[in-house]
Amino acid sequence: MVRFAMPFPVVPGKTEADVRRVADRLMSDPEAYRESRRRGGVTMERAYLQETPMGNFLVGYFETSRSLQEALTAPVHSDLDIDRFFVAAVKEVHGVDLTQLPPNPPVETVGEWFDPTVSERRRGYAFCAPLAPGKTEEGRAFAREAFVTRLQELTASRRALGECGEVVSLTATPQGDVISVYLEGADPKDANVRFAASTSPFDVWFKEQCARIFPPFVDFSQPVQGITEIFDSEALLARA
């Protein structure tokens, strides 16, 4: 299973209505959507609109049984109307040409945790933030320490917040490296609020490390604002 989150910029002049138009088209034909994503091995897809001072972004979260490359490019080679629409809309609304992706898309999941005691899927929440210049390797080291070396502490922290999953991905962009975070839980928005206020030793350490690798205007001691859910394949296919 490959899990990753990645940011798609919203082209200046495009609005939330334009972003929702893409999601509405997918939701209008669940069976065509199911076949489309089956071809790319995508088993879950969620998307969240984030409003930021740098512009708006759609943060997508994906789970796939195939490679990242196959998941992202399957619609390009498809004969389905829904895929032709999707490829054109991603270019129009986000400025991303799926036909021109490099052989190895510049997305790397650097941290991943799912609670093994939770079997059902819960609500999602995702956001992105730019790394400070020159902080990529320090960010990777931080993720290894948090998600591997200190796994037991991370598990206790996230369970206390009501989370059951967290995925952190790194995307290289022409403007610099960007971190995308996907959270899953009973109420992940509330979990983010409580994490920002938390004084538990692990959470304090985690926020201190974030302060070292992100620019000063990215402050995880404050809740992330401006997130709107746009699409959830779990909800769509449950209704189909």
Order of helices and strands: EHHEEHHEEHHEEHHEH
Quick check: average pLDDT? 96
- Share of helix, binned: 40-55%
CA-based shape: globular
Relative strand content:
25-35%
Query: How can the largest sheet be summarized?
Result: 4 strands, antiparallel
Quaternary organisation of the protein chains:
single chain
Cα-atom Rg, whole angstroms? Answer: 17 Å
Q: Helices and strands: which structural class?
A: alpha+beta
Separation of termini?
24 Å
How many structural domains can be distinguished in the coordinates? Answer: 2
Number of alpha- plus pi-helical segments: 9
Features:
alpha+beta; Alpha-Beta Plaits; four-stranded antiparallel beta sheet; 41% helix
Walk me through this protein's architecture.
Helix 5 (136-149) crosses helix 6 (151-161). The strands form two sheets. Strands 1-3-2-8 form a four-stranded antiparallel beta sheet. Strands 4-6-7-5 form a four-stranded antiparallel beta sheet. It is built from nine helices and eight strands. It has two domains: 2-105 and 227-239, no CATH class; 107-213, Alpha-Beta Plaits, CATH 3.30.70. The radius of gyration is 17 Å and the shape is globular. It is of the alpha+beta class and 240 residues long. The mean pLDDT is 96.
